[in-house]
Design a protein that fits this description.
The chain has 312 residues and is of the alpha/beta class. It has helices at residues 12-22, 54-63, 83-103, 141-159, 206-218, 235-242, 251-263, 273-278, 286-291, 299-311, and strands at residues 2-7, 27-34, 44-48, 68-71, 108-114, 164-170, 172-174, 190-194, 203-205, 223-227, 245-249. The protein has a domain at 2-173 and 202-228 and 282-296: Rossmann fold. The radius of gyration is 19 Å and the shape is globular. Residues 2-176 form the Ketoreductase domain.
């Protein structure tokens, strides 16, 4: 019987993961660890946990006799905090969790990474497979941090193989009520597209991401997996689905506008976001489906479900 700690357990993905794990017969207990208090289902408890404070992580692991960690605590809206604060959670927080898990004898850890770990590059393979290089952009803090975390995980796999790892490189998550920096792009009367780029998106419905998390936490498979539904939606596809048009802006013009906008404190986004819009990573989910979990919804179906929920 597995006893699981979910870091970030009060968050959107974390709360779904806590509920799904608590519902399983092979999971004895689930701890939703977060700074925010969480309402949890039967079979789960909330514990105050700050991943930037190693002592609290060690204390929660010991108190609840945890043997499996699902590490989901992360900055979900990059750019809203300064870089040091984001690094303290995303990079140093992950190290704190790994070290505490090893000290507590935890045998398995599931870590939410991102397609951003591959980076936003013109020469990225399409689609990207798990064996492709992780090259998170140095100029884009969120992407760089994801790359650094993956490099850290690779180091721990080599030095401390007793801690089994499941690393999930997740595409854009959609689900009921999702409203974030990506969905904000779709509020405009005409959707922004960098000239010469299709702006591809791969989507993962939250229940499918949760399914991959649960399979990773309760199964025996280890490894790195791209997590998304089948297929791709371009900016034009999204605009059509929303009944909108698109506006094509040259990359240089957009970079200059963002540079000025950030200097005037009109936006937290800078010219590094042009690559984010221009060279979006397209993920191959073949390994996920063959070894860990088969998503129920395609990228298009996930978008349609999000749109229906939004209209309800």
């Amino acid at each position: 019987m597995t006893r699981v700690l979910v870091t970030g357990g009060a968050g959107f993905l974390g709360s779904h993961a806590v509920a799904a794990l608590a519902a399983r017969d092979d999971v004895e207990h689930v701890v939703a660890g977060d700074l925010r208090e969480a309402q949890v289902p039967a079979g789960a408890t909330w514990a105050r946990l700050d991943v930037t404070d190693p002592a609290t992580v060690r204390a929660v692991l010991a108190e609840h006799a945890v043997d499996t960690v699902v590490h989901l605590a992360a900055i979900v809206n990059p750019g809203t905090l300064d870089e040091a604060a984001e690094r303290a959670v995303d990079v140093d927080g992950t190290r704190n969790v790994l070290d505490a898990a090893l000290a507590a004898g935890v045998r398995r850890v599931v870590v939410s990474s991102s397609g951003a770990a591959y980076g936003y590059h013109a020469d990225n393979p399409m689609p990207l497979r798990e064996t492709d290089a992780v090259r998170g952009n140095p100029e884009f803090t969120y992407s760089r941090h994801k790359r650094e975390v993956e490099e850290m995980l690779a180091d721990y796999r080599e030095r401390r193989p007793e801690l089994g790892q499941v690393v999930l490189r997740i595409g854009t998550i959609l689900g009921p009520g999702v409203d974030n920096q990506i969905t904000a792009l779709w509020r405009a009367r005409r959707l922004l597209r960098v000239r010469g780029s299709a702006g591809p998106f791969v989507f993962a419905w939250v229940d499918d991401v949760t399914g991959a998390v649960v399979a990773g936490a309760t199964g025996s498979v280890t490894g790195t997996f791209n997590v998304c539904g089948d297929g791709v939606m371009t900016v034009a596809d999204i605009a059509t689905a929303l009944g909108r048009g698109t506006i094509d802006v040259p990359a240089g013009v957009l970079a200059a506008a963002l540079r000025v906008g950030r200097a005037l404190r009109l936006t937290v986004h800078g010219p590094e976001r042009v690559g984010f819009l221009r060279y979006r990573p397209v993920l191959d989910n073949s390994r996920l489906k063959a070894e860990l979990y088969v998503p129920r919804l395609t990228s298009r179906q996930a978008f349609d479900a999000w749109q229906r929920d939004r209209a309800a």
